[in-house]
Specification:
Length: about 160
């Protein structure tokens, strides 16, 4: 079955998290510290993050086969959303149709269902690439192709 619509999570999937806090590189922080960090750094919050090569390559393959690609990521602030937009435009120019954001992972399914309906895409023609195992399982149960980011490092069948 051809994938016509694909959604990619950002943190830990499309990008390797790297944030400098007080001169030290960290990969994460508490929610309160993250909100403060995003507000202080604005759209430059992701400036030290790097694209994950295996995921970027897979996204390019899907795009070349005609799939419409979307970033679908959870955010806590408007600054974080703007930073994810900037990261995507700088690192994946022309690859993703849009960067969609939600407030919690469960909301991702409503966004995906809405786009599937708008574009006339069946669940089996839709893929979610994600690093949160529970979200991957939920996508599989919903009838979508569900790809955990770690699978992109294994030999694909």
């Amino acid at each position: 079955m051809m994938i016509r619509l694909a959604f990619f999570d950002m943190d830990g999937t499309l990008c390797a998290p790297r944030f400098y806090v007080n001169g030290t590189m960290v990969v994460g922080m508490s929610d309160e510290a993250w909100i403060s960090f995003c507000r202080a750094n604005g759209e430059n919050t992701y400036r030290f993050c790097k694209p994950v090569p295996a995921v970027a390559e897979y996204a390019e393959e899907l795009h070349a086969k005609g799939a419409s690609l979307y970033v679908l990521s959870t955010v806590q602030t408007g600054e974080e959303a703007a930073a994810k937009q900037k990261f995507t435009k700088q690192n994946f120019p022309g690859l993703f149709a849009d960067v969609l954001t939600v407030q919690n992972d469960a909301d991702k399914f409503a966004v995906m269902r809405q786009l599937m309906e708008e574009k006339g895409v069946r669940p089996e023609e839709c893929e979610l690439v994600e690093d949160t195992y529970a979200t991957v399982l939920a996508a599989a149960v919903a009838g979508m192709r569900a790809t955990h980011v770690s699978h992109l490092y294994c030999k694909r069948d």
